[in-house]
Amino acid sequence: MRTTIELSQTHRAALLRLAAERGEKGFSRLVTEAVEAYLANLGLSDERADAQRLKGVLSEADAIELEKRVRAVRERWR
Hints:
Blueprint: H1 9-21, H2 28-42, H3 47-53, H4 60-76
């Protein structure tokens, strides 16, 4: 999602420098990481980010079994 934020020239320059060091053109990813870290510190992290951190936690077999069970529950759901 796009939005507009006010930054000092000093902060903007620092973000652009950090982004360039990471091989990125803009600093959107840096701002996203900063917001996620801030919200996580408050205990308000993004649910999608929480879900992404779980990627790879289940083995392939466990993931397949979980998917089968979810499908079975959904078939009985009203």
